[in-house]
Amino acid sequence: MIQELRDILFVDIETVASTPDYGTLTERIKTQWARKAGFFKRDSGQTDEALFHERAGIYAEFGKVICIAVGKFFDHESGELGLKTKIYAGHDEKALLTTFKSMLEKMDSSTLRFCAHNGKEFDYPYLCRRMLINGIPLPPVLNLSGKKAWEVQHLDTLELWKFGDHKNYTSLDLLAAIFDIPSSKNNIDGSQVNHVYHQEQGLDRISEYCRGDVVVLAQLFLKLKGYPLIADTHIVTA
């Protein structure tokens, strides 16, 4: 395997509002959400409760992680590059994050590199915040305290695409389209995750969607580095 492709762990997470019932929130948390919601543009008559169901999952203080998909390159028996994926999903966030942490701690943190799309702004800090909220000590690869910028091994395909331009956000789906990478958006998209989880109990659907995104992410990384896409037959699920 090409050296620069080694030791990269591709990561994508799915998050939702912490509860399906706004009424179960403590008054203290409701007050804090009202302050947060005060900064949002809202439709006429849209309440704090409606905004909670629509947007709380984006914020680690008000949401939770329900699924983490990971992917790692490997040498396929054909002699070509392969991609191995694995999904961590569940309703018990603490158990989910603890299992994910245990997986990370089996890997060499001195060489392991994360890669996510907009990971530096979303996935990485969200995982760290939710681990701390759940009383889980951060694993070395996520504990950035005291580290210099050049010591952090995290990669971000959005950052790679920007080439220093910070004016615009470019979605993973748009980059997949322009690079002709098969899309993961077959039966759900990110805006529907909260509804599918809380109203339809569709964790399995969300997990498959999340796995699809991590495949697209890995394929996009290859394109950005000038390598060919991995054949579908060389993509496996652990």
UniProtKB/TrEMBL annotation:
UniProt KW keywords: Exonuclease, Hydrolase, Nuclease
Predicted 3'-5' exonuclease PolB-like domain ranges (all copies): 62-225
Coiled-coil annotated spans: none
The organism's place on the tree of life at top rank: Bacteria
Keyword Membrane: no
Record has Cell cycle as a keyword: no
Gene Ontology molecular-function annotations: exonuclease activity; nucleic acid binding
Name the UniProt record assigns to this protein: 3'-5' exonuclease
Naturally occurring in which organism (per UniProt): Chryseosolibacter histidini
